[in-house]
Amino acid sequence: MIINIRKWPELIVSYSVMTFTVLVSIFPILWILLSSFKSNKEILNDPFSLPKKIDFQAYMDVFTQYNFLGYFMNSMFIAIASTLIALFIYTMAGYIFGKFNFRGKSFLFILCTITLLIPGYARAQPIFTIIMNLDLYDTKAALILVYASFGMALALFILRLSFIAIPKDLDESALIDGAGFWRIFWNVNMPLAKSGISTAGILMFLNNWNEYFYALILTTSEKNRTLPVALEFFNEAFSYNYTRMFAALMMVILPGIMIYVLVQEQVQQSVASSGVKG
Amino acid sequence: MKIKWLNVWIAAFLAPTVLVLALFYIVPIGTVLVTGFMEWDGLRAPEFNGVNNYIHLITYDNTFFIALRNILLWSLIAATLHVGFGTLVAFVLYKKHIGWRFVRGVFMVPMVISAAAWAIIYKLFFNDEIGILNHMIRSIGFSDFHVNWFFDSPASFFAITLTWLFYAVYVTLIVYNDLMAIPKEVHEAALLDGASEWGMIRHINLPLVKKAIGTGIILSVTARIAGFEEVALTSRGGPGNDTYNITLMLYDGIVNYNYGYANAAATIMILLGILVLLLINRVFKMNESTY
């Protein structure tokens, strides 16, 4: 195969950009990963060398001695609970926005989605005071409640479109069969809106799992601490044990990466299946 | 009777969302805008004090102007270099050279990691003793190179910039999506007219993804205005007030029970966001249709 000589400059530029993109994206993570298997001495003296042996001692130490599991469970519980609550209430609202008409509908929808334009941190003080007044300061419920409120605009956007895409004939024939409002929603529409619901759920879960600012101002005790906040405490606790610091970092970022890898496959599958249909 | 039941269901289905909208959006935003003009420590009832919070914010020390300068500079860098890089990657991916899927997948990884973790990764990365960056610089011949990136001025500003500068995957995805939407006929017609590759990019593709670039600029500049982790967990605004920003002012206001002050900072943040939105909308003519 002869490659057109005039293509060479374009190929060189393209592959340089692609290589650079991959490098900036994974080099820092790769460095953290390799360093988490090295001793302090190796980290200080041979930063470029590969670890002499792969052992998970530092990971075990972080896991057993620093309540990592506790923070992990907090993060998991808060992220899952808030995502499920958010999905439930926004799916109901998205269904109404997608399939029914009522006075003031477009106004309400615009009001809900325009909130995306206000930076989330700008509402921090009033939300702090509301949580205080609800007597929820330093509880997991506080974070669950606040996180459930975050995904509103994005979830409604995605979910409304998924319900619009479901033909109305299905509702009508179900109605003729004697199905009530709830059954038409739950048994007819929900299964068909699955891909929209899971997309919204995945995005909200990742945001809630990674959230730092509100976890910092709304909780203080160790029993309600989430992983992103715990990281800073690890950073202080391990200030002279770099191996553990790197191991802790890996353990914090790994779940997010793993979920992303899973989701990526799902996205590719949905693209493939829609290709078959179309 | 039937119609009435339907209305009850509609109301019931919307009620939780409306409650969230009121409790976590409308009431807080209203509170922010109003109490920015009040003296409020969270214990005593808030009292109107006119524009005192704003005067205090601006004149207390020069922190506000440093924060504003930083935000403007960071926004400028985000709107040009950051969005430019994201757009460049989108155009390269659009060529679909072998490996493009892998590049797109990997580019997304820093975005799925907690911003707090990412900030700490970079704090270690730039560390003078253990950080790989200074080791690399020393190993290529500058053996006396020692910079404490997050603690020296002006290195701190650049180090913070580098924590987000290249991570523009959202811009890439938005622009890429619009590139894919360009009808084939447009390119075929241009080829028949003898357009060169570069001419095609400049006169066809770039104008057709203008709106996507505009959206990318709005998203990335807003992220800079509301930036927190990349500063709070690295330099913490230092050295001195060198890398202070508005979110840090807001945070300090809350933890020091100076709520009026915090909300004055929050109001400025909201106004800056709206300003950027209006400006980009106008410059990029986002309301006009592309085709």
TrEMBL record, chain B:
Domain ABC transmembrane type-1: 68-280
Keyword Membrane: yes
Domain of life of the source: Bacteria
A Gene Ontology BP annotation from the UniProt entry: transmembrane transport
Chain ranges passing through the membrane: 12-38, 71-94, 106-126, 155-176, 259-280
Subcellular location: Cell membrane
Family annotation (InterPro entries): ABC_transporter_permease (IPR051393), MetI-like (IPR000515), MetI-like_sf (IPR035906)
Endoplasmic reticulum found in the keyword field: no
Sorted UniProt keywords: Cell membrane, Membrane, Transmembrane, Transmembrane helix, Transport
GO CC field: plasma membrane
CDD domains found in the cross-reference section: TM_PBP2
Topology of the protein relative to the lipid bilayer: Multi-pass membrane protein
Pfam families assigned to the protein according to its UniProt record, in alphabetical order: BPD_transp_1 (PF00528)
Record PANTHER family: ABC TRANSPORTER PERMEASE PROTEIN, INNER MEMBRANE ABC TRANSPORTER PERMEASE PROTEIN YCJO
Family, as annotated: Belongs to the binding-protein-dependent transport system permease family.
Protein name: ABC transporter permease
Lineage, opening ranks: Bacteria, Bacillati, Bacillota, Bacilli, Bacillales
